[in-house]
Structure formats: C-alpha cells, structure tokens
Amino acid sequence: MSLATGIGSMPGTDFAESFRVVTGEVGGLPYVPELPARGVHAGMIGRGLSVLAGIQADLQPDGWRLGAGEGADLRRARSLLAQDLDTVEELAGDHVGPLKLQVAGPLTLAAMVERPRGDKMLADHGARREIAESLAEGLLTHISDARRRFAKADVIVQIDEPSIVAVMTGGIPTASGFGRHRSVHPPEADALLTMITRAIVDAGARPVVHSCAPDVPVALLAGAGFTAISFDLALAKPEDAWAEAYEGGVDLWPGAVPSLDAEVTDAAVAGRIETFFGRLGFDHEAYADRLVVTPSCGMAGASPAWARRALSVAQGVADGS
Length: 321
Known about the structure:
By secondary structure, the chain is an alpha/beta fold. It has a single domain (3-320), classed as TIM Barrel (Alpha-Beta Barrel). It contains twelve helices and nine strands. It has helices at 15-25, 44-51, 72-92, 106-112, 125-149, 164-168, 186-202, 218-223, 240-247, 266-280, 284-287, 304-320, and strands spanning 3-4, 56-60, 63-67, 97-104, 153-160, 206-211, 228-232, 251-257, 292-295. It has a seven-stranded parallel sheet with strand order 1-9-8-7-6-5-4. A two-stranded antiparallel sheet has the order 2-3. The protein is globular, with a radius of gyration of 19 Å.
C-alpha cells in the first residue's frame, strides 16, 4: 500500500494547527512540521543545530555561528523543538506506524553555519567532520527521546541535504562573495553521511534523505546507507542510477505535488509518477507497495490552504496507487 507525507516546513506560526493538518491529510505517515515563520530558531538550520551534541552556536548578523557557549538563540531553538515534540506527543502519542522527524544534514549545516572566526565550516575538513560527529551523537539522544514519546511508532529520520549538490560541485560562495569553497569529494561526503545513517540505525530508526536539488547524487546516497531518497520529481532525470538504487532496495519518494500554490489534479500527479517509474523500467505493481508521494519540497512559502491541498493530493495519489 502506498503512503504520502510532507517534506517538513509548513506555513504559519501555529504548530498545533499545522500538526492537525498533517495528521488529518497524511495520517498514515505523519511528520513533525517545521514552521520557519516563527523565526530562524524554528527553521531547518536552527532546528538542526538544536540537535547537535557538544557544539554551541548563536545568531550573528550573517547567520548562525559556532561559539564557546550556548547563546540565547540556540536555547530558543532547543526550547521550540522540545515544545513541538510535547505537542505532538499530546496529540499523537499513541500513533501506530511510521512517524517522521526531519534534521538538516552535515553537508548542508557545514555550508550554512560559520566557524567561530568567520566563514563557513565547509572551509575546513576538520570542522566538517566535527559537525558530522556532533550531529551523529545528537541524533542518538534525539531519536531515543522520540522513541520514548512515541513508543508505538516506527521512527523515520529524514536528513535534509538541499545544499549537497552545491557542496560537492564547489558552488558555495566564500564569505567575501568573490570566490567559491572547494568541492567536497565523494569519498568524504560518503564518510560524513555514513556516520549519520549508522547513528540513526543504531538508535533504532530508519534513515531517509531528502534533497530538492537537481542532479541528486543517487549512488552516493544509496551507498551511504539511506533506505529511501526523497526528491523533486520535476528535477530528476530517469537515469540508470535511480533504477540501480531502487533495485538495490532503496525506496524512491517522488516529490510530485507542487510545493507552492498551483492548479493540479490527482490524475496528473499520478501520471507523472507512472511515467518516471516507467522510464526506469518498473510497472505499477513493482513500485506501488514502496511508494511514498510527497510535495516537491518544503511548503513554508505556500498559502495555508495550498499546504493542506498539497498534502491531500499526495494522499489521494497514494490511495489510488
């Protein structure tokens, strides 16, 4: 049976209402939404930093920067995460089945967070490894807490890596804006991501990865131990790497529903999914039981009405598969 879920971010500032929308529309695979409209503390990077172990950070004019002590901004991010999990526990503590958390991945964090003396952590090999190690350790605690709260649920941890392609192709600008950071080569990217997937598995959860970038490094992600790849279907080329990953046991979660307000029908979305898998050589029976339909990316920029509608469409397509 096919399922549907969302990527992570939702519009608005009322977390309880957003989670009610999630459970009402994609209750078979609900997720803990992120509401960036509440401030950077509640966005992808702030939430990712709140999970880290042994590393502190605070906000500076240019964004998040690591520091020697926990600043008020990081305390705020951690407090928001705890409050959100309290709300989810209150509303769905007895949920049976999969339940998804989202956390920014090590490559994206390295590309977005500055070192104590400035410039991105991406600039330093040791800093990149440090943030991955901290994330892996923090995930052990984060997942343990989630499994305690949701004892009947099967916890899924989605690692968000929107910057992975830019990181690996030298596309991240330096602090001056006049240059680009050196690319992170596949062996190092594999090592950092494998560190994360192993921590997730060790904690008793399922690791999946999401990237809405073009030219997602499918083979790398599959080799790093992710059990599913969530992607923007409009940007994916039906190449052999996708088919090989799928045949190797990695599920494909097509982001087939527009994440911003649009006119779309269940039939059109289902047709795009069928076409993609057909070009990979798989008929409907080959993917129906492994399919998870999602919006193309996060929906923080969508209207509340469209966020609900997009999830409804995703679920409708899943129900019809």
